[in-house]
């Protein structure tokens, strides 16, 4: 399978490259070594029409000026950390505060704004881009030199696999995700409100005013957070549940996954017939329905509007470092962090 590297832009005298992976079915994934940003995913609808199903830009400047983490890898810690600080081994670490008084998606200059080292590999039925970045001890306030590796692999079955690996020379915290905004209508023809989502999750994390987990994991039964039988995303918009209203109408919530690597997340757009199944080894997915995307900029010709994309951020629960009852985000010195998420596209 093919992987092509081309120049995309320049950043402080360094070249930013764009990589394009194309499989035998014509599916295409483009990504940058800046932020490991996925700029484009072309997949067929039920009539074989190849269209883009993620929000992205064609210039680096737009990513720098407007992007709410479009397609990027978020780290070291995806999601909010309350008060922008935490304690580990009896020491308090003060993080960059870039979201009110809190740390969000790794801080002021998280993984999404770094230029990563990149190489491509081509196999008989898959192709990969491997990104590497060393996050120095103290970067954005986090402890330990953390060596990260992120691999994007496209195969001939229209599956994109993202794998993350990390090792640190000191105990630290790691919680990474990819922040792609999906819109299965193709080329942003419609909002995502009519997309139907199925989630194998029976609990979601309640959020406080700052959108940080309170610690309470709420049963989804009888609420618009129940996606176990499938539900349109618009239900979160019209809902009078204070949790939906709090996040600006919609969803911006971590869901605890009841199963792993067994079609636990499935997104379907009936009009185009496109389906995306997401499988992960991570304990949670943050469902974000781009409730605050509205802005005076355009996304490949389409005016930025709320609910134009939906993020399925597979990861650990945000702020786990303050909630010992949540699955831990601590990475011990010398141990390996590993996580894999697969995005599988099909048509019906
Ligand atoms: C998501 C959300 C946030 C934020 C951001 C752009 O992960 O949890 O609220 O708006 O992305």
Automatic annotation (TrEMBL):
CDD domains, sorted: galactose_mutarotase_like
EC numbers on record: 5.1.3.3
Keyword tags: Carbohydrate metabolism, Isomerase
MF-aspect GO terms: aldose 1-epimerase activity; carbohydrate binding
Signal sequence extent: none
Enzyme class (EC, first level): isomerase
InterPro entries tied to this protein: Ald1_epimerase_CS, Aldose_1-epimerase, Aldose_1/G6P_1-epimerase, Gal_mutarotase_sf_dom, Galactose_mutarotase-like, GH-type_carb-bd
Gene Ontology cellular-component annotations: cytoplasm
Catalytic activities: alpha-D-glucose = beta-D-glucose
Residues that bind beta-D-galactose: 179-181, 252
GO BP terms in the entry: galactose catabolic process via UDP-galactose, Leloir pathway; glucose metabolic process
Pathway recorded for this protein: Carbohydrate metabolism; hexose metabolism
Family, similarity comment: Belongs to the aldose epimerase family.
NCBIfam families, per the entry: PRK11055.1
Record's protein name: Aldose 1-epimerase
